[in-house]
Write a structure and sequence with these properties.
Number of helices: 3
Shape: globular
Structural class: mainly alpha
Strand content: under 5%
Oligomer: single chain
Length: 82
Amino acid sequence: MKRFVSALVLVASTASPVLATECPTLQAQVDAAIGTRYDPGAANARQLAAEAWALHQAGKHAESVAKYDEAAQAGIKLTHKQ
């Protein structure tokens, strides 16, 4: 059991920094795609991206990435890190 918990902690500690570095990249992609659009879809994407950034700042990176994916439904193509 100790080994399992240790392995789980190790995996979690290595996965979080990867997601953390992806958030700023996704934010930049959303900002570039929206540009100066002022249609309702762009406004919704801006709001979702702001929520995603707040989640990133709070350390909730997986939730942040999911929120960016939700924002991308406004016709934005996001490229995730592999």
